[in-house]
C-alpha cells in the first residue's frame, strides 16, 4: 500500500472537491484492462457488452477484411472515455449515434472518447467501421490469425478476437453474437452457433451465423476457405455442422473419422455433465499448419496434423468436454484454467474407461508413478500456474490427477453429482477454483481445503501418505502404461499456439 503525505493546500482542495455534489463529479476513463493479473491489458473496465453484431466482408486472395461491428453494452461507471481491444485500422466510431473521437495506444487498445460523457448504468450502442489485413497485425510479437492457402482463420487462446472484431476481450464479459460474413461464391465462412441463412448475389455469398447463448470473446471463431460441410443431429436433436478444408490431403480420412463422431460423443458426455448447454454442435478442420485444437463455442477448431497418426476420438472428447467446462462455465480469471483443462482431460480418462483402454484410476496411478519427485512437472501448481505455465502439461495431467483424488476422497455419488451440478449452478456465467472448492464441499459435506492444497497448490509431488489416502499410489512397483495413454498424450499440444507458445 502506498501512503502519501498530503500538503495542507492539497488537503483543502480535496475537501473542496468532496463538497461538490456527486452529479457534478468528473467522469473518468474506463480502465485499459479488466483486472486480470495474468494479462493486465486484456479486457477493459467501465462497461459490459451484451451483444456483438458483426457484418464482415473478406477477400481470401488478399486477406483483406472489412467490417462494421455494433456492440450493445451497458456502462458500469460514469465514463469520459473507454477502450476496446482491437488491431485493425478504424475508419469511424459512433457512440449512441454520434461520431466519437478515437486513437490507438499500447499493443491493442482502441481508446474511444464519446461526444457526450456516459453516465453509469445506461445502455450504449457502439459502432466501429474498420478494415485491414489481419495476418499483417501483431501484438506482443505474435498473430492469432492463421493465413491458409484459401483464406484465413481466427482461433487462439487466450486471445484471437482483436484480429477480427473490436471487443472487451476477456472471458468475464460474455455476450451473444450475430456474425454475418460476405465471401466470394464457392468459398465458405464458418463461425459459431447456428447457420441462420445464406444468400448469393453478384458473385458473393453471405453467411449468417448466430450464437444465442453468452460466449467469451476467445471462443468466437471465424474460418473462411473452401470446405466440405456435413450436417446431422444428435440423438437428442441438436443440429450438427462440421466443416473440412478441401485440401486436408492424407489427413482427411482420419479427421472425418474422428469429428463425425461429435454427436455420439456429445450424447455420451451428457451422461456425466448433464444436458448439452447449446443449440448447435460441430467442429471444423481448416488447412492450417498449427498443432493445437481449441474449444471454440459449439464448433471446436482442430488442426490437421493432430490426425497424422490416424483418428483420435479422445481429442474430440477433450474439446467437447470444454463446452460444459470452460465455455458454459467460463473462468473468472486466467489463473482458474484448471477448471477448464483438468476436467477436459478427466473426460478423456472417462472415455478411455468407456472404450476399455484403461480406467481413470489406472491413468491416475500412471501419471503419479511416471513423474519422480524431482520432475519439474510437480513444481507447476494447476490451481494457479502463472501465465508462463498456463498451458503446461501439468495443468492437464496433474489437473486430472487432482480430479481423481477428489473423486476418491468424496466417493462416486457426490463426485458425479458435482460433475453434473457444476455446469448448471454457474450456467453461462463465470466461476473460480475457490468457487469450485466451495461447491464440492457443499455437495459432499466434507472439508476439502487440505486436499485442494495438496493436489492443486503445492509445488511438490504429493507424498505417498497423501497419495495413498487419495488412492492414487500403488507403492514402489512399476505401473504399466494404459492402452489409451498414447492417444491422450497426442492431445498434449492442444494449446501450443504457433508463434504464441503457452
Automatic annotation (TrEMBL):
One of its GO terms (molecular function) is zinc ion binding. It comes from Streptomyces swartbergensis. This is Aminopeptidase N. Its cofactor is Zn(2+). Keywords: Hydrolase, Metal-binding, Metalloprotease, Protease, Signal, Zinc. One of its GO terms (biological process) is proteolysis. Its EC number is 3.4.11.2. It catalyses: Release of an N-terminal amino acid, Xaa-|-Yaa- from a peptide, amide or arylamide. Xaa is preferably Ala, but may be most amino acids including Pro (slow action). When a terminal hydrophobic residue is followed by a prolyl residue, the two may be released as an intact Xaa-Pro dipeptide. The keyword Signal applies. Belongs to the peptidase M1 family. PANTHER family: AMINOPEPTIDASE N (PTHR11533:SF297), PROTEASE M1 ZINC METALLOPROTEASE (PTHR11533). Residues 1-24 form the signal peptide. Pfam families: Peptidase_M1, Peptidase_M1_N. Residues 50-219 form the Aminopeptidase N-like N-terminal domain. Residues 311-455 form the Peptidase M1 membrane alanine aminopeptidase domain. SUPFAM superfamilies: Leukotriene A4 hydrolase N-terminal domain, Metalloproteases ('zincins'), catalytic domain.
